[in-house]
Amino acid sequence: MSRPTLESLAATTSSHELFAIFCYPLASFQGPDTPGGRDAFHAHFIYLDKLRTAGKLVFAGPINLPVPGQPPVHTPGALEGMIIIRAADKKEAEKIAFEDPYHAHGQRRNDVHTWLLAWSHNELTPKLAATFSKI
Fold it and tell me: Rounded to a whole number, what is the largest CA-CA distance in the chain?
């Protein structure tokens, strides 16, 4: 059996440009289990919901969570996060990232990266295509 060509593989792949925001806690970060941190967390969630309502938010959530039985990857309670958004360009994505209350109030540093989401056709393709058809 012959090996598929790069061109034939590329023809079966869909791609969409999105933006990944990596959120790193700073020394002033307060976890959601503290009084001040709870207010900041609430403001962050309100902001994410605003992005969701505007059709900008694709995915969001904490990353590098502690694994039971292993040393923590960061200070307990200082959650790192990742937010995937739709934006017209990197300038708009940076505006969105920097307006996040955690970043705007100096509790997190948000770094923006262009992300070309690509996948091969499989059983998830119809669901993914429907999700990203608005891009």
Answer: 63
